[in-house]
């Protein structure tokens, strides 16, 4: 771990190394300056000099550029030195503050805060009944007793959703299934479908077909007495029905 003292030594070494360009760079710069001075041509004499001063020669311009480069390098070294000094000051300031913490205030009087505690302890030990006296001795009202939570009752039964009304298409599909059962001599299914039609379509469009199917299904099931009574009621109500021949065929009656 780097200590503040080691950090200051590193900054000091960096400051010394950044005061100017290296010796090799300085030697190269002066060699270039001397070469430019030796290569330059002498200026004109006063007798031959024109009234207007001629422009500076290329050699003089190069010399000025070299001198400006030397000044820039030296200036950068001084700036680096100033920055190193400022960094050292910033590091030294918090280090000094941490090394010398302020001592606590010795003028704090703890006697005043300790006195009430001693008085309270002495009063409690002198009269123990005073410490146990609570709101009950002062006539404070007692807390009301909470009523027990009632037990949850059974959940209310939800009404069943109403069945969708049957349509004429439903009635037609039911009658087609009934006709198929009669054609296949399935009397049990036929009687079941007759009861379903009577329940869902009591006053439907196919009451005549339902009564004819009832008589035929009873006769096919071997219930001759019930089948004949159903056939007679059907013939009385619909004497000219197109289903009368099928009823008499299943129930064993000849057509009148």
The outline comes out as elongated
- What's the total helix number? 10
The major sheet is characterized as: none
Order of helices and strands: HHHHHHHHHH
* Low-pLDDT residue intervals, each spanning 5 or more residues: 91-95, 106-118
Number of strands: 0
Rg for CA atoms: 63 Å
Distance between the termini: 127 Å
Secondary structure: helix percent: 55-70%
Mean pLDDT: 70
Any descriptors?
single chain, 256 residues, 0% strand, elongated, transmembrane helix
Structure in words:
By secondary structure, the protein is mainly α. Among the domains are: 4-40 and 58-96; 168-251. It is 62% helix and 0% strand. It is built from ten helices and no strands. It has helices at residues 4-17, 23-39, 58-99, 111-126, 128-132, 168-183, 187-200, 207-220, 224-237, 244-251. Helix 6 (168-183) packs parallel to helix 8 (207-220), helix 7 packs antiparallel against helix 8 (207-220) and helix 8 runs parallel beside helix 10 (244-251). The longest helix has 42 residues, at 58-99. The protein is elongated. It starts with a helix and ends in a 5-residue tail after the last helix. The model is unreliable at 91-95 and 106-118 (pLDDT under 50). Residues 157-169 have a biased composition (Basic and acidic residues). Residues 122-146 have a biased composition (Low complexity). Residues 1-25, 89-169 are annotated as: Disordered. Keywords: Membrane, Transmembrane, Transmembrane helix. Residues 147-156 have a biased composition (Pro residues).
In short:
The protein is mostly helical.
Tell me the layout of helices and strands.
Elements: H1 4-17, H2 23-39, H3 58-99, H4 111-126, H5 128-132, H6 168-183, H7 187-200, H8 207-220, H9 224-237, H10 244-251
Keywords: Membrane, Transmembrane, Transmembrane helix
């Amino acid at each position: 771990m780097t200590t503040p003292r080691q950090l200051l030594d590193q900054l000091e070494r960096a400051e010394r190394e950044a005061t100017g360009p290296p010796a090799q760079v300085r030697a190269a710069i002066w060699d270039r300056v001397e070469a430019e001075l030796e290569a330059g041509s002498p200026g004109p004499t006063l007798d031959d000099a024109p009234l207007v001063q001629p422009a500076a020669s290329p050699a003089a311009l190069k010399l000025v550029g070299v001198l400006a480069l030397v000044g820039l390098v030296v200036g950068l070294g001084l700036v680096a030195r100033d920055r190193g000094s400022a960094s050292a000051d910033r590091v030294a300031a918090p280090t000094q503050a941490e090394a010398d913490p302020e001592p606590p205030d010795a003028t704090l009087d703890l006697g005043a805060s300790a006195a009430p505690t001693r008085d309270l302890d002495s009063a409690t030990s002198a009269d123990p009944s005073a410490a146990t006296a609570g709101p009950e001795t002062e006539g404070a009202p007692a807390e009301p007793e909470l009523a027990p939570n009632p037990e949850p009752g059974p959940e209310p039964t939800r009404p069943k959703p109403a069945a969708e009304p049957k349509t004429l298409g439903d009635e037609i599909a039911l009658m087609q299934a009934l006709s198929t059962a009669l054609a296949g001599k399935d009397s049990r299914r036929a009687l079941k479908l007759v009861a379903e039609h009577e329940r869902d379509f009591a006053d439907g469009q196919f009451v005549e077909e339902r009564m004819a199917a009832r008589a035929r299904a009873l006769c096919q099931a071997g219930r001759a007495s019930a089948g004949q009574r159903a056939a007679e009621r059907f013939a009385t109500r619909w004497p000219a029905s197109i289903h009368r021949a099928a009823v008499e065929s299943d129930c064993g009656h000849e057509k009148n």
